[in-house]
Structure formats: structure tokens, C-alpha cells
Design a protein that fits this description.
The protein is mainly α and 311 residues long. The chain has eleven helices and two strands. It is globular, with a radius of gyration of 21 Å.
């Protein structure tokens, strides 16, 4: 959740205590509800050995783990900002970097999941050799390393451009403290646009290839290709939501130029709709669409429910 200045945060807190408490309560309920769901789904994945050796489940588990960390860290940032707790810039840097890394991981992992579906449907004979457990772990490591490039580049530029005494300055913990110059912001914008274009091109390539495979396939292969196409559409929706979430600071900046109240309303709506609900729901929908995973998930839910009744 982006905060642009300390004065704006202070105005948020002082605006209307009742409204702010209600907003904070809604955020708490949503965040912890989705964290519980993500952890339960992770438990389901790790509870069955059959899931461990399947590429799409390994990537799905990584997505759930990243989303859980993201929700926990944004929850921490929100609580710190709500209580207006200031820390030295140097103390906030690690939190900002980790939050940026897990935020960047989501679209890159979605791309990896699309490529895995492309290989499974368009190259079924080679899928078992390509999408091994070891290679999926290498993919996850690569995704994490790639997602770390920008945060560590930002840190390097910050060390170079920061004025004397800047790292001891008290501040709210938000990523804006890492970006001090306009040219630095411009570099980030260009990198982000190139990144999004590459991801969109890869997903479109996979979708076209799977669509062509679905048209030429027959029987069970046709059904599998059709399901893969629908899965890619879901990944496309996930990517759109990630892009919308990452573009929210720009819309908030435009809103701030018109009205502070409009800015605060849009920022809160963006955080709830894009930062929490959309990120969590897309993973839940993906899990429930998978018949094998949803059967195991419902098994644990049913057993838990029956146990509570018996008790």
C-alpha cells in the first residue's frame, strides 16, 4: 500500500476516527481471512506427495507462499502507517526490498505457469523431461532472482544519490523512500513497461499456440487443450490485476492533484480491491478449478467440519 508523504498519512489518521476504524477493521478481516485460506491451501499441497512432483502444483505453491508473504508485509506497513510509527530510513529498507520482491514475483510466476501449460499441451511427450521437480526449483530461483533485480538496483542508486544523514531520517516505511530523483523514477518506469510487454507477449504466444493445438486435437487431447486455454485466460486476468495494482500509484497521483479526499478514497479502494481481494481470489479460483487439488481441499474441509460436529 503506497504512501506518498508523512503529512498525507497524518491527515488520513486525523480525518474521521470512526470511518478510519471501520476501514481498518475491513482491512484486518480481509487480510487475515485470505492469509488463512492461502496457508490452508499450502498445507493441502504439502500434505499429499503426489503434488510435490507436479510442475504446476510446485509453481502454484510458490504463488500461494508469495501472496501470503505479500499480505503479511502489507499488513505490517498498514499497521505502522495507521499508528504513525516512524523509523529511520535504514530500518525500513529491508522491509521495502522484500515487499517489492514478492510483489514482482507474482507476474513472473504467472508467466512461468503459462509456459508450463504450453509445454504440457503443445509438447506432451517432452513435458515429463522438461518440467521436472529439479527444474521447477530452478525456475522458482530464477523468478526470485529476476524479481530482485529492480529492488537491489534501487538500493544501489539510493546509496549513491542519498544526501548525508538521509538514512537516519525518521519516516514511514513505504517504497517511495528508495526513490529520490526523477531520473531514477524514469528508469523504473521504463524497466516496468518493458517487463510488462515481454510478459504479455509470452502469454499471448502461449495462448495462440494452445488455441491452435485445441483446434487440431481430438478426444481427450482436445479437452485438455481447451482446459489449458481457459487456464491461460485466468492467468491473463491475474496479470491484468497485477498490472492494475502496480499502476495504482499513478492513478492516485492524478487523484491527488484534484482532491485529497478523492486521493484517499481511491488509494483505499485500490489497496482493498487490487492489493488484497484480487490477488488472493485469483489464486483461490485457480486452485478450485483444478479438480485434483479441489477434491483434496474439500476432503480436508469436510473432515475438519465433521470433526467439529463430533466434538
Amino acid at each position: 500500500m503506497d504512501q506518498n508523504s508523512s503529512s498525507e498519512e497524518l491527515q488520513v489518521i486525523n480525518s474521521d476516527p470512526v470511518v478510519e476504524r471501520i476501514k481498518m477493521a475491513i482491512v484486518q478481516v480481509l487480510v487475515w481471512f485470505f492469509i488463512y485460506i492461502d496457508i490452508f491451501m499450502l498445507f493441502t499441497l504439502f500434505s499429499k506427495q503426489a503434488f510435490w512432483g507436479t510442475a504446476r502444483y510446485i509453481l502454484f505453491a510458490h504463488t500461494l507462499l508469495v501472496d501470503s508473504i505479500y499480505l503479511l508485509l502489507t499488513e505490517l506497513v498498514v499497521l505502522l502507517s495507521y499508528n504513525y510509527l516512524l523509523f529511520p530510513v535504514s530500518s525500513c529498507i529491508l522491509l521495502c526490498i522484500i515487499l517489492e520482491i514478492v510483489s514482482n514475483c507474482t507476474p513472473v510466476t504467472i508467466t512461468a505457469m503459462c509456459l508450463e501449460r504450453y509445454v504440457a499441451i503443445c509438447m506432451p511427450l517432452r513435458h515429463a523431461d522438461i518440467a521436472t521437480t529439479g527444474r521447477m526449483l530452478v525456475v522458482i530461483t530464477t523468478v526470485s532472482a529476476y524479481s530482485s533485480l529492480i529492488p537491489f538496483l534501487d538500493l544501489f542508486i539510493l546509496i549513491i544519490t542519498a544526501p548525508p544523514g538521509y538514512f537516519a531520517t525518521p519516516t514511514l516505511c513505504h517504497y517511495e523512500i528508495m526513490i529520490l530523483t526523477e531520473w531514477h523514477r524514469f528508469i523504473r518506469d521504463v524497466w516496468y513497461q518493458i517487463d510488462i510487454v515481454l510478459i504479455v507477449l509470452i502469454i499471448l504466444f502461449c495462448y495462440v499456440k494452445i488455441t491452435l493445438a485445441a483446434r487440431t486435437a481430438s478426444g481427450e487431447n482436445k479437452q485438455s487443450a481447451s482446459k489449458g486455454r481457459h487456464t491461460l485466460l485466468l492467468h491473463g486476468l491475474q496479470l491484468i490485476l497485477c498490472i492494475a495494482d502496480n499502476l495504482s500509484p499513478y492513478t492516485e497521483k492524478i487523484a491527488l492533484e484534484h482532491s485529497l479526499q478523492l486521493y484517499l478514497s481511491i488509494r483505499y479502494s485500490n489497496y482493498v480491491a487490487l492489493g488484497i481481494v484480487s490477488r488472493a481470489l485469483s489464486s483461490i479460483i485457480y486452485g478450485l478449478r483444478d479438480k485434483k487439488f479441489s477434491l483434496v481441499l474439500m476432503y480436508y474441509i469436510t473432515c475438519r467440519f465433521n470433526h467439529n460436529i463430533a466434538a
